[in-house]
## 1
Amino acid sequence: MNLIVPAPAEQSAMLPSQSAPTAPDRASAILHAARLLLPSLERGQALDAATLRTAMEAAFGASDTGGAWVWKDAYEACEAAQVLFLRRHGPAMRARSGSPAGMLAMLARLAALAPTHTRRSEESTALQQFSTPIALGFAASVAAAITPSDLVIEPSAGTGLLAAVAGGPLALNEFAETRAELLGHLFPGAPVSRHDAAQIHDYLEPAIAPSVVLMNPPFSIAAHVEGRVADAAFRHVASALARLVEGGRLVAITGISLAPDNPSWREHFVRLQARGRMVFSAGIDRRLYARHGTAVETRLTVIDRVPAEDPTVFPPCPGIAPDAATLLEWVTRLVPPRPVLSAPPIAVAAPAARPVPPRAIVPRPHPIPTRHPESAIDPGIALAYELRDGTPPESGLISD
């Protein structure tokens, strides 16, 4: 399939002729750079280092040598440009592709135009910000079997690549401030929240009731916690599953070890199947993530929000997919149809405008009541208590 889309005449100018926004914040500057890069993608031109630098310097009004931006920002701009491309041309690509395999081939050509991520920022390392490769995101969206009547939520939306591939009505959540701001620009019709997705069910607005969850959570870190958190991804999955309407479907990309055939996780998944039945799980070769700055083996897991008849039984794993085409073939052949929803999904409208920052609170002196020198101070009442043996919660994690 031919991926190159004729660019509109007004977008065909060279990058240096574009003007930067006035005093942009980081998110709007990244968005501006993405818009400068979009014509290159539409012409089928690779985004090399020189093109990236030109766009970033035009958008930020300065070079990275002065600290105005870092190369991680440039990679974010590349991903945002891909999102803009998919938002504009995705429907036509789907119509022309003829099949999921044809669409995957077109997406692979688009992904090949972006550079390999070779540099990281402190934030990207601390929050494990590795965006979903487009080909892998497409396989996940096919597994989700999304329909126009669904509400799709992505709890760790990043720069929106997975959401852009998925299509359909969206609700997005992203903990990192700059990325959340960027999502608001890229998906103006979708609500964007900024919660810790490990507790997305607890914090998300009650009115949002999704029928599909697409997620690529951090594998081993947690917000406000230093060091490795072994069950970080499982916490994200369990909380997102709790938010789904009955009969909904969750599709998660996690580390390869998060599987019921791993003795460390089997009992966790047995308990999870009391609420959601796993219907597919397959490993993914590390090469699929190589261009996004990491080399770890991953896993695609599909869970339907219906209790399993036997929580101790899980679907067989077909193995480790060496490429996206193999994974897509497994998904198409092995993932069963979705169950019937018990209730229609519900979404809330996106805000019409960006929220106005709260006014600064100026401390004001308050008079301190004076006590009569002879008045007694209430000593309070001693608290009586006794120690009791505790029972671990259902999840087995006392920290919950």
## 2
Amino acid sequence: MTRYPYTASAHLPEEYEEFRATARAFVEREIRPSATAWEANGIVPRELYAKAGAAGFLGLRFDPRWGGSGMDHRATVVLCEELGGCDSIGTATALMAHAEFSLPLLAEHGSEPLQEQFLEPAVRGESIGAIAVTEPGTGSDVGTLTTRARREGDHLVVSGQKTFISNGTQADFVIVALRTGAQGPIGISLVLVPTDTPGFSVGRRLDKLGARASDTGELYFDDCRVPANHLIGRAGRGLAYLVPHFAVERLVLSAFATGAMGRLIELGLDYAQARRTFDKPLSAYQTWRHRFAEAATRLEASRQLTYHAAYLLDLRDPAAEATVAMAKLFSAGALQSVASEMLQIHGGFGQMEESPIPRYYRDAAGFSVGAGTSEIMRETIAHRLVDTSTSNQ
């Protein structure tokens, strides 16, 4: 197998490259051999979370007190690049919906009792977490959420509906964005709801175009009573907690995209060198050599922007949010282009489900929608660009 050179990672300290080797070995040993079966089943087995936890992948940036590794966002990018090339974006999504989408809110804003009860076993992969924000009709407009929690004595009573929730059908607990106050963004809070709570139920497991190994469900909360101390952080601060969290989700998807592009180029180069037409390999034709050059350029631009965004997140730089949006916007388009080109070079074989190529082609479609659409990314970038320019006049 041709190995695509990771030029951006050459600038990372040696420990990141050692971590990359560990993550790559995990992908080759624990994920790729089963990727096709998990895609067909539409769900990842719980055992994979335990294996990922034992490998140290489920709490990279958390305090070692809770089993974390105390690393940074660049380590997250390294891991997610390798997961992005695992031949199942759905599997990568399932793992990171747990480790990077739901657990950081608990690690950063949860009380110590909540962290002891839920975070520590989740970092070990003994339980599965999910985050529930999207509702039917709300999409990226978080300020209009209608799921609500009312206070009754020492409990919060949660009522409402969520949709498009990754890990929704097998999660052991869900961090729910809901309304505890007045209409608008200021009334949003976060509450942890164990899924064995009476009144909680899972609706349909949703049948998606791509990322099919990631179980995605509809969730219903019918007067679910949870202890009031299951509130994460302060009431009414939920949106303030979610905004930086959204940036991490977008960084994860950008890293998935770079890993997927690298894997696609590897597969494409192998096929182009093996497949012969008119007495020479496809790789000898200028048209395909130039298409590979374009694909590699898109990959490297995506990778450099993604690592730069991670660096700014680690610095808590004010430009980090817009830079992450740039990385996701660009990498989503780049992956769709590269997936299309690698599908084309594989010809008829690229149409066969025995190959990971059509799977990547389908998966690529979701990158311009997940964690905020490309239209939202453009607005985030424009907000930083235009508003900063105006305020400096």
## 3
Amino acid sequence: MISGFSAHAQKKLIQKLLSNQKDTTRKASFMPLPVIGYAQETGLELGLGALYAFYTDRKDTLTRSSQLYGLTSYSTEKTYNLTLKTDVWSPQNRYHYLGELRVKRMPFNFFGIGNHTREEDQDRLIQQLFKVSIEAEKNLSPATYTGLSLSFEKHRYTALQRGGVFESPEVLQRRGGQVVWAGVSQSYDTRDNNNYPTKGVFGRLSYQYAPPLFGSSHFSGGQLKLNLRHFWSPFAKVVWGTQLVYHQIHGSRIPFYLLPQWGNDELMRGYYTGRYRDQNLLATQTEIRYRFMNRFGIAAFAGMGQVYGKDPLSLSSLKPNYGLGGRYFFDTAKGLSVRLDYGVGEKRAGEKRQSGFYISLAEAF
């Protein structure tokens, strides 16, 4: 009997996961994602990530979906990573709340500062990070949101070797430091869906200021961020999205860890995170998404960008990336997916071509 019930339950679960029908009940959904990895420096890493999606008002079909995201992992070499994120829309989208808590101790490769760092110069560092941030936006006019933000970051770094690029004079605050940010933002959003938009425009401009709360030897200054996105459907089941990102930081004694950097599962896929960092970051990407079934889709993406400040802004210094990916939509009504992407970057002389494979929840942009 137990065997029969188990087989029946498994069959129902498989049918639910592969069903091509769209859920119109606006029920909450939960998606766990295992984290498994191995590296010589970290050892065996195991963890779990999960996304919980819900509506603050199930009856109002215009209220956007909200998400709670969590990730925790631990390795045999005593590295750990805990991340909690919230993205909540109030009924009728009158308010938008964002929050993040991150505690991390992880090794990573540091390649220096600028748009022309070399793989052979990499230093191995241990990062200890504590970060907490909150942000609230209010809908003041149609499609327009004005917000305030507050955040705190504390960084600590330990070099696993001496005499490398990490000890160059341009690398400031090598042991780490702390900073408080207070900021304002202005957004414009006409997307038809905040998770998987098929049409509309999103634009966000934010500025954050870090006052000299921790003495003259610590960073004091500001950072400006611009994020522009556009989506449209040239054909049935096809979405074409484009994005432009600009990030600039200025002030006295800018720590290396606050410099804008790229290379992750969202921007310039295919590059190692932090391979290139500097005072300014400019990047653009485009992605064509084909959702051939309600549950499954594929995507092709390409982009280019550079960091500059130490190195000048130059068209000849733009770095490319491109790649392919697959999508499984675990919540078809909200447009939430598990994303598998493989990105490819530049090939520098004497180095192998840069590339990366990503397993993530939700779209890159």
## 4
Amino acid sequence: MTRHRPTGARPSGSASKRSGRWPPWVWALLAVAVEACPVHAAPPERVVSINVCADQLVQLLARSEDVQALSFLAGDPQMSVLAGQSSAYRLIRGQAEEVLPLDADLVIAGVYSTPATVALLRRLGQRIEILPMTSDLDGIRANVRRVAGWLRREASGRALIADLDARLLAVRPATHGHEPTALVYYVNSLAAGRGTLADAVLRAAGYRNLAAEEGIDGEGYLPLERLVANPPDLIVLGNGLQHYRSITADNLRHPALRRVMQRVPSVVLPQALLMCDTPLVVEAVELLAAARSRIGRSTVSSTLP
């Protein structure tokens, strides 16, 4: 009786051995795939942040019980929008002797965070992630997804982005009609120009950035004389004068600026709102969008203290 090998059965002998060997290119692809796969499968339960912008994303996304420490700047209201909530956390300066005893399974740093600490943690094989800097809303969304992925809190990240987008949509101006100009003006006659986070916030609130139209890229010098000669429809101050006691704020105390602000609407935008590229910038967008209703009035009282 003749026995027939079932279709699809493994051939015997040398043919079987040959079929069991994969060509080198298959092994190469497998090696690349393994290297690309995340090795941190379990959600981190001992998280440390040593960057003020990472602090805020951690506060927004992580479970509080999983956070071992934030940077000391998390408690500074001039630097962090969430400073009022920082008392629930240990605050550190990011030095190695502070970070190492915490035995973190995830340390998040910024591009410029305490480089000696970052280098040491890497040499010791600890997990450290670097949060990139961004200056636009798409970059903010990307950073939310990035941190949410590190924390294994992807659903929270999606919810945070959805809330950001809903609030931006709610204040988005009509596509037709006049687009007013605005200028974010700081101490020492610095203005926020093209490519800054302030520029992205102004555009989201429905303004043209006068500093960008004046040819300023990044934060650049805008003489008070130019502002007086060509004022915007809205003057946005980077902080009230009560925060500055030095002569660098003399441009904000100048009588010429006060005279302009008697006829041009102005608003004080807390420095912390534009300090970090997080979804919290939507609060700045909402504040500026609300100020659009004041544009066009013949006389507006200055908001300078």
